[in-house]
Amino acid sequence: VQLQASGGGLVQAGGSLRLSCAASGETLNRYNLGWFRQTPGSEREWVARVRWSSGFATYADSVQGRFAISRDHAKNTVYLQMDNLKPEDTALYYCAASHRSVFSVVAENYVSWGQGTQVTVSS
Questions:
Q1: Alpha carbon distance 49, 105 (integer Å)
Q2: Phi/psi of residue 58, each to 5°?
Q3: pLDDT of res. 86
Q4: Could you say which DSSP state residue 25 is in?
């Protein structure tokens, strides 16, 4: 499956963005989806994950209550709604897919990655 992330941009602290992750090549029914972020010189950090089949989602403590995952089966797309953004949320955000049997927070367990979309939050 090929993934394409979009929706990043520049926003002031307290603002909102919605990231999209569109899949092509095959349906996401065989996968779970995750969002990660990375800043220069740092490891890729897990942000959120969702089971495509059920919609069950979990979030990193740093974004819990501010970020929310949703999915559109018809569009084969996953969204990450990001509210009350903080300067520390500034990063390159990636979506990734893992096989349906894998529901992980570890980047190495994901088999397909989108190209990343930059989110910059100004103070």
A1: 7
A2: -135, 160
A3: 98
A4: S
What phi-psi label fits residue 95: left (phi over 0), alpha (psi between -120 and 50 degrees) or beta?
Answer: beta
Contact assessment for residue 4 and residue 115, using Cβ atoms and an 8 Å cutoff = yes
Q: What residue type is assigned to position 30 of the chain?
A: R
Tens digit of each residue's pLDDT (9 = 90 or more) over 52-87: 999 999 999 999 999 999 999 999 999 999 999 999
Q: How far is CA 20 from CA 23, 40, 48, 58, 106, in A?
A: 10, 22, 13, 17, 21
Specify the pLDDT at position 101.
96
C-alpha to C-alpha distances, 79 to 32, 43, 51, 64, 123, nearest whole angstrom: 13, 23, 13, 16, 25
Question: Residue 74 is which amino acid?
Answer: A
Bridge partners of residue 23, in order along the sequence: 3
**46 — pLDDT class (breaks 50, 70, 90):** very high
The two structure tokens encoding residue 106: 């570890």
